[in-house]
Here is the input.
Amino acid sequence: MSSPEKWTHPGPDGPPATAAAPTAEQVIAGLKATDEGGADLVQLLTPEGERVQHPDFDIDISAEELRGLYRDMVLVRRADREANALQRKGELGLWVPLLGQEAAQIGAGRALRPMDMAFPSYREHGVAWCRGIQPTEILGMFRGTDNGSWDPVEHRFHPYTIVIGNQVLNAAGYAMGQKFDGKVGDDADSEATMCFFGDGATSQGDVHEGFVWAAVYDAPLVFFCQNNQWAISEPTERQSRLPLYQRARGYGFPGIRVDGNDVLATLAVSRWALEECRQGNGPILIEAFTYRMDAHTTSDDPSRYRLSDELELWKLKDPIERVKVYLVKQQWADHAFFDSVEADAEQLAIGMRDYCVNLPDPPAERMFSQVYAEANPVLDAQRDEFLAYHAGFAGGEH
Amino acid sequence: MAAPTMDPLTSATPAAKQTLTVAKAINNGLRAAMEADPKVLVMGEDVGKLGGVFRITDGLQKDFGEQRVLDTPLSESGIIGTAVGLAIRGYRPVCEIQFEGFIFPGFDQIVSQVAKLHFRTQGRIKLPMVIRVPFGGGIGAVEHHSESPESYFAHTAGLKVVACSNPADAYWMIQQAIDSDDPVLFFEPKRRYYEKGEVDTTAAPAPLYSSRVLRTGTDATLVTYGPMVRTSLDAAAAAEEEGRSLEVVDLRSLSPLDLGPVYESVRRTGRLVVVTEAPSESSISSEIAAKVQQECFYSLEAPVLRVTGFDTPYPPSKLEEDFLPDLDRVLHAVDRSLAW
Ligand SMILES: Cc1ncc(C[n+]2csc(CCOP(=O)(O)OP(=O)(O)O)c2C)c(N)n1
Ligand SMILES: [Mg+2]
Here is the structure.
C-alpha cells in the first residue's frame, strides 16, 4: 500500500486528484500501520525486550536509571489498580485508568526538568508521579472532596483538565510566557512546557489553535499526544485520515511517532524535544502510540464497542514486562530488586487505601471559598444566609 | 415527528400505554421521529455504536445506519457547526452534547449562527435542529458533569429552550422539538433518566412551548422545570401532610416562557417560590421573578422567593447535596413566604 503521505498529498506528478480520498481501509492501515505503529515509529526496546537502534534517537541509560524507570512504572500501575479498586468498593465516584500508558507517561514525565511546566488532561497520573505528586493527592477529585489538591505552581503541574482540549491553548500561552521571559536559549535556566492530550482531543478546535499559536510564537512547547487508539467508543479513524504525528507538518513543526509502550523511546524523544524547545526550536509534536488497556473510565463498558482480540494483541506489548526482560537479560537487576519494588508498590497501595477512606468531607462553606481573588460582598451575603440556614437546620428546625 | 400520529396502528411504539424511563422515552421518541422523517439525523460523540454514554441513542445506529446516526469527531463546535450546514441542506439534525459542561466549545456556533441565521436571512434559512443536553447534578460526578447552563441559551434571542421532567413529556417533547422549525435546546434531567412513568403514545401531547400545572394547590405556587420538578412535587406532598396546599407548575419551555398558568396560579395563591438547580444571578428564575411581580403585583402576599443553586462553580460532589435545592430548602422558602 502506498504510504499515507502519497494519497493525502497528491503532487503535480502524483495520482490524479480523484484518488485523493482514501478508502476506510487505507485510513485505518495508515493510522495504525498495522503492526508496531509503522516505519516511522521510534522504538529502542522491543516488546520482547531487545535493545534496538534508531538512526535519530538513542539513549545512554545506566542500570540504575532503568531500574528507576521500571520502579516508576510498577508503582504508578499499582496506584492505578488501587484507585480502580477503590472505585469498585464505592470509595471513589469515578476513576480514569492509565493502565497500558505507563511508559508514555513515565518517559515523558522523567524527561521534564523541575523548572519545566506540564499541562495534563485527566489520565496523567504517571506524569503527576514524576512531578512529585503523591497518588493520594489525586484521589480527592475522584472522591468528590476537591478538584485536585496539589499545588500547581509548586509542582509545575497544572490541574487536570476535563474539557477536552482546553489545556492545549493554556499550555501554548504559558510557553509563550517562558519565551517572553527570556527563558529560551542556551542558558542553564532555560525552560519548556509539555502539554498532554489524547487522540480524540486532536479534533478539538482548541488543539488546532494551540498548534497555530505555539508555531507562530515559536513557543517552547512539546505537544505530547497519547494515542491510545480510543476516544471512549470511537477509534482514531473517527478523528483523522492521517497518522496524528503527521499533522504537525501542516502547522510547520516536526511531528514524531514514538512507541508509547517503550519507556526508553518515550524518554529519549521527550528529552530531545524538550531540549529543542528550550533552545528555541519549538514547538514539537510527539505522538505516543499506545493502548488504553482498561475501560475509558470506571463508568464505561468497552465490551460494547471493541474486540478483546485487540486487547490480547496489546498485552504482548506491555510496557513494564519488556523492561523487566531487559533488566534481567543485562543482569542489571536481581530478585531482591524486583521484590523490593513489589513491596514498595504494596506500601503505596496501602497508603492510598488508608488515606482515601479517611478523607474527610469538606465543610459546606468550602463551596463559597476562593471563587474570586478579590472580595465579593454579594457572594459573601449568600454564604452567610446559607450558613444561617445550615445552622438552623442542624438545630432541628428548618 | 412529523405531527404526532394519533392512529395507534401507525404509531411507532406498539402498545399505546407503556411504563418507561425518561431515558427510554427519549430513545423511543427519537426512533419515532427517525421513522417518520428520513431527514432526521442523530449526531454526537459516542452516540452510534455505544448508544451514548447514557444509552439514549441505544440501538439507533444499528437500525438506521451510520449515515443517519453519526459517531462524530470529538468536537462540539464541529457537531453544531456542521449540523447548521446539514439543516440548511434540508436535514433535521439532532445533536447530542455528552454533558452540559461540554457545550461551550460549541457556544460560538450556537450563539453566532444557530440563533441568528433565521433573522439574518429574514427567514430564507430555517434551522430545524435540536441540541440535546443532559444537564443538572445529583449524580456524584466530577467537574463539568453537573451544571445547569440553560440561562445562557434562554438569554439568547433566536433559540428556543425546553426541559423535560418526566417520561411522557420526554417522549413527546423530543419529537415536537425535532418537528419545530426553530433551533431547540433540549435539556434532559440526567439524574431523572432512570425514573419511570407512564407514556401514552396515543394521547395528544400538550404544545411544546407550554407550561403545565402538575399539582393544584391553594396556599403557594412552586414554579420549576427539569430535575427540580420531582423535588418540588415531593415538597408539595410533604407540605400537604403539614396541612399546606402547594400548586406546582412545570415550565417545560424556558424560552419562550409560558407564564400564563403561573400568573393565574399566583393570582390565586398570592405566593410564589421558584425552584431551579441553576444559580440565581441573571437567570431564568430572575426572569420569572421580574415578570411575576410585574403581572401579579397586587395579588402578591409575599415577595417572589427563589430556591436555587448558589452563585458559585458547581462544587465537588461531596458538597452537591448542600448546593442543590432539596425538599427542606423548598419547604423552608415556602415557610418564609407564608410567614411574610
Ligand atoms: C469538550 C468535551 N467534550 C466531551 C467530553 C467527554 N469526553 C471525556 S473523555 C472523551 C474522550 C477523549 O478521548 P481522547 O482525547 O482520546 O483521550 P483518552 O480519554 O483516550 O485519554 C470524551 C468524549 C469532554 N470531557 N470534553
Ligand atoms: Mg484516546
User: Anything to note?
Assistant: The mean pLDDT of chain A is 93. Residues A 198-200, 228, 230-231 surround magnesium ion (ligand 2) (CB under 6 Å).
